[in-house]
Amino acid sequence: xxxxxxxxxxxxxxxxxxxxxxxxxxxxxxxxxxxxxxxxxxxxxxxxxxxxxxxxxxxxxxxxxxxxxxxxxxxxxxxxxxxxxxxxxxxxxxxxxxxxxxxxxxxxxxxxxxxxxxxxxxxxxxxxxxxxxxxxxxxxxxxxxxxxxxxxxxxxxxxxxxxxxxxxxxxxxxxxxxxxxxxxxxxxxxxxxxxxxxxxxxxxxxxxxxxxxxxxxxxxxxxxxxxxxxxxxxxxxxxxxxxxxxxxxxxxxxxxxxxxxxxxxxxxxxxxxxxxxxxxxxxxxxxxxxxxxxxxxxxxxxxxxxxxxxxxxxxxxxxxxxxxxxxxxxxxxxxxxxxxxxxxxxxxxxxxxxxxxxxxxxxxxxxxxxxxxxxxxxxxxxxxxxxxxxxxxxxxxxxxxxxxxxxxxxxxxxxxxxxxxxxxxxxxxxxxxxxxxxxxxxxxxxxxxxxxxxxxxxxxxxxxxxxxxxxxxxxxxxxxxxxxxxxxxxxxxxxxxxxxxxxxxxxxxxxxxxx
Length: 515
Prior knowledge:
It is found in: Membrane. By secondary structure, this protein is an all-alpha fold.
């Protein structure tokens, strides 16, 4: 089984240099301000992912208000959840140019605007634009930086830190379900969305807490990580040349580009110094030129990093296991989202509304989901446990629950299955860790952006597909069966690709021995 990217033979160059001198660890790595980053990410998950998990409440309000089909109405929630994740690769470009803090603050404003504008919706199609697109893009601009910043600030306890921060999804689903129920009952769904928009402005505060690490701090983290993995790296049978052919991004063009950029800025500064004796208007113009030049350099550098990660000769897509991970993500997320959107309707069909009002099934998923993320994160951080194996076992449990859920028609049976769904879906906290193990910290933003984009596509089409199947069969059973089978296909890709990748070097060495 796969344990880290060294076992697979991929290294994207962020850990290749091992320091010869002992370096004093930065107090903000695995401690200090790192825990403020965890708090910020935790609140982001409450306000974004938790709110989206509670959209089943608003979905029922929209069905009554606009009197549209379940398939069409489900597109509102799906667009919001899907676009939040689909825009991941493009948000990676924003992060490369503006940084996580600025990206998150802008996203918080956009998300709040989407909620507020949706309060004035006159039809479902209006909600597609305001809630689905506007709020969805804003959510994506906050969500990805929240995940990336935790990965940057933690080295030894990454899985635990990601687990703690992502428990906000479970807390949020529980709190937001109760809040939206109360607000819709007391003030109506329109005022509820307006109030939720005001609450979402707190995302800007969360973004302000995302203080970036200095380049020196990042270099220290890479050195510490290289030292801790040196013993495992010595066991590799691949040579340096082989690793480079598998995907090391060349740093020579970056150095040349930096030299050219410094030359441009230097020439502007030289003109500015030489023109001090000139008029004030000329000096003002030179300052504007210098600012524009610096902005151009930042944009070019960010775009170059973003482009090379996706489309370069040694792009992320040359990593076969990472490609298998993408295929898995295309099928997995809809299996988790469909119950949250359609469980209120299923409960109503089975005449279980009285029991569900006492303790909603979605709240059971949300509460157990919290413990699942923390426990799986702690287990994965144990030195004798493979994160990859924990990830796969949780996936197998979740797909089994999805296939079993339609067979349960009592509240107790549904509650047990929902609890298992909540616990096993705690593997979401391991996704950033697995992604970082595959591609390295340097490319985490772009790589995880691709993964959540694939998840977004899954979330975009899952609930409307389930609603469409219901409109045809008047049952949700087939929706869960088909979603579970597609999910199983994705898991099979995860199992097959690491085995193929491990066999290739051995086959090559056998051929060389024969020659």
